[in-house]
């Protein structure tokens, strides 16, 4: 496929063509990705778009123009040494930056334009019309409360964060299949009751179950909230139904009655098993008896199950923290430092995650990299200075006037004199040799 192809497609649709489809999931977006991956030899370009999630969203979730947090842009440049515009900013439902708690900007502060995603002059972090840098330092007084946005932010962040590690993504049938399975697992015979329980309208649910339509992004978020999970959990957690509270929902439920002896055996097995400990709630659901009955009859066994699962959860958190710590220490040991973001990309860890667990180590890596860059700059200057000095002395000995022209003829990088520093350095040496300037 050629670039020209895409250009043609875009110009055919004329001015009405919506560029935002590029970060979204249209056919064009797919072509563009394949094209860019082909040109760059990278296979991760797809993760800079929402394409992988097209199966679960029925319409474009991506906003039609660029949006940005000026404080983030500034700090990317200052602290990470690399500027990028995170995909999270382009999600329609996301209105604020959760780090700085300010509204995302969508108008250039200098020329007042809204900025399209595709533009021949586009430089990340700058306005493509007037080349204004979009970052800002300083602080904003009126911070916005994250309330209401928090759940939305968490959901999209999670989807973006897990995408690179997944082998497959849900297809168009996924949500329909999920709802059918859930309805069966929660034992709802009537669709109407299921719709009341989910808090969605009947006909909508009917179409979703029959896979004739899929829920809007807002509806999907509503479902997740109702089920006490995230969108990602909907597609990843096989046992999600075990988490769902139906107890306070008024309806007749067929609860299988187990004998107290059966319950004891079940609890005992769960408490002393060697495999991954389950929560008490899950054990009871799987066993088909109520938690209250279990706790009343077997306080010791149920407590043991709860302790096991709490300890397990704590340990896996500690393990993750330890793993990240080791990775960061490995990074600190590298002979030639790279930026924090580049390093973490190699290990598949996000900067946010690393900073959440080990802010100090991250800071050390950033500092070390800055220092390295500064030293490299000095080395580079010193290297060229030595070369210039050597050439001047050589010409001087041969009684040739060390003009820039003469030096340029022999120096390894003639363009170096575009930097005024080296021209001043040449003059300084000439002076010390007694030349009048
Ligand atoms: Zn920000
Ligand atoms: Zn502008």
Structure description:
- The protein has 437 residues and is an all-alpha fold.
- Among the domains are: 3-53, no CATH class; 70-163, no CATH class; 170-242, lambda repressor-like DNA-binding domains (434 Repressor (Amino-terminal Domain), Orthogonal Bundle), CATH 1.10.260.40; 366-432, no CATH class.
- It is built from 18 helices and 2 strands.
- It has helices spanning 3-12, 27-40, 70-80, 149-162, 174-185, 191-198, 202-209, 217-227, 231-236, 260-272, 280-287, 291-297, 299-333, 340-347, 351-357, 359-397, 404-410, 420-432; strands at residues 96-97, 102-103.
- A two-stranded antiparallel ribbon has the order 1-2.
- α12 crosses α13.
- The two termini are 59 Å apart.
- The relative contact order is 0.06.
- Residues 1-22 and 250-256 have low confidence and may be disordered.
- The protein binds zinc ion (ZN) (2 copies).
Q: How many β strands by DSSP?
A: 2
| Straight-line distance between termini | 59 Å
Low-confidence stretches: 1-22, 250-256
How many separate helices?
A: 18
Strand order of the largest sheet: 1-2
What order do the helices and strands follow? HHHEEHHHHHHHHHHHHHHH
* Alpha-beta content class: mainly alpha
Average pLDDT, all residues: 82
Q: What spatial form do the alpha-carbon principal axes imply?
A: elongated
Strand content: under 5%
Kindly state the percentage of residues in helix.
40-55%
How is the biggest beta sheet arranged? 2 strands, antiparallel
Ligand set: zinc ion
Radius of gyration: 30 Å
